[in-house]
Amino acid sequence: MTPIVTVRGLRKRYGRRSVLDGLDIAFGTGVTGLLGPNGAGKTTLLRCLATTLAPDAGELRVLGLDPATASGRLGVRRRLGYLPQDPGFYPHFTAFETLDYVAILKEMTDRRERHREVTRALTEVGLTDRARTKVRKLSGGMRQRLALAQALLGGPDLLVLDEPTVGLDPEQRLRLRALVSRLGESRTVLLSTHQTEDVAALCERVVVMDGGRILFDGTPAGLAAVAAGRVSLGDHRPGPGGLFWRTADGRYRTIGEAPADAVPAEPTVEGGYLLLVGRTEEAA
Amino acid sequence: MSWERITAEVAAPAPPLTERLLRAARVPGHLARLLAATPALSRAWAAAVAVALGFAVAAAHLADHGFLAFLTLAPVLPTAGIALAYGRRIDPAHETYAATPMAGAPLLLVRSTAVLLTALALTALAVPLLPSVAVQSVAVQSVALPSVAWAWLLPALAMTSGCLALATRVPLPVAAVTLGGGWVAVVTAVGAVTDDRALPFRPAAQVLYGCAVALLTLVLYVRRHRLDPAEPR
Lengths: 284, 233
What we know:
CATH class of the largest domain in chain A: Alpha Beta
Oligomer: heterodimer
Largest sheet of chain A: 6 strands, mixed
Number of strands of chain B: 0
CATH topology of the largest domain in chain A: Rossmann fold
Shape of chain A: globular
Distance between the termini of chain A: 39 Å
Number of strands of chain A: 13
Number of helices of chain A: 10
Strand content of chain B: under 5%
Order of helices and strands of chain B: HHHHHHHHHHHHH
Number of helices of chain B: 13
Structural class of chain A: alpha/beta
Radius of gyration of chain A: 21 Å
Structural class of chain B: mainly alpha
Number of domains of chain B: 2
Strand order of the largest sheet of chain A: 5-6-7-3-8-9
Number of domains of chain A: 3
Largest interface: A-B, 47 and 35 residues
Order of helices and strands of chain A: EEEHEHEHHHEHEHEEHEEEEHH
CATH architecture of the largest domain in chain A: 3-Layer(aba) Sandwich
Shape of chain B: globular
Distance between the termini of chain B: 50 Å
């Protein structure tokens, strides 16, 4: 793997709370999913990579450039598409104006070229028919797609997507998966999510973070394998101490210590994730 | 013309009046859009500036030295607008824009220009409404009457460049409040300790403001990279 992004000893604190604790990781071409509970440090890491936040310590190389320098930051920003966790909008702008404004900030000064690129991005996310609709009149899912469209402007080499599937309905999520997987064929795509299904379906690599550290770095299949032998199906309600739920066929699926009468079940990414972050008992 | 281009042009909404006026004044289209879309340039902000100027003009009509209130207030207005034009807490889309090549100094300076020109234009419109008697009462000491009526201009430019230069060290709103508060405090203090309340607006002070504009602009140019959102302050 040729690293497009390299992180060494990255540290970030907010007051007394350490959010990134000496992180070391590299990312190459393809789609990588970041999983982790709230406060794990995913957003902070992505913000550092997107050059909107300076780390306290450590080294970053993004697209071969150093974001700690002004020229390095500028170079990164010219090749970056970034969807923040809370993408704000000007409600009085139309969808087209919103993208047009970002396109100008991305140094697209030629009006015709810019408008063509804006139209292309709107088409990519299926919002062409909403081009002249004010942002305040768009639904939450449409706004999320608009936020994704601004990240796609200019065909960036690196896409940093912080929770891109939030607010999307199932069909839109599937369309997003298709789009992101296509982009990931030739680019580096980093996405953080709480949706383990998206990771299983979309990412060739998954990184699980908690407390500013990396708990797992491998394939979705490898993450699922963490749960091998610790996922079971039984006919009786398990006792306290594990995470379980009643499935559609009336059986109990347990993650963690298997009840006496249960049989092993197919491990999943979700099971591996829950076991890694140690939330099975807490969730129960 | 390709179908793709026709679609793009049809989807593009007509630019608002401000943007059309800027384009008519030969401002490049992309710059006109950035200037016209400055967050602080809302109707609410323009109305607030107009009301503040209205009170200052009224004070000039009603009080002996009310004209000085106008001269004191006018330089603060652009600074207040700039504080509302850029920043994480102010701009809902700041995080998105912070990751673009124009983040930091380029965008802040474009927005500051928009705010400054608007505030200066509104203040200039208020000047003819000032009572000539009040202006004369301040102007008696060796200064021609028309120049006193414009004595706020250089302080306004000095405050603006000072605010931006200070913002390379502290957050922009802190810089704006510090300078705005400091300016009002100094003008008030000078009035209290000297016989000449208009001293901060006399020619000697104007020379000082002119030098300050040049110096602070130089500081701003040298330290412009520190305005980047990823620079710790």
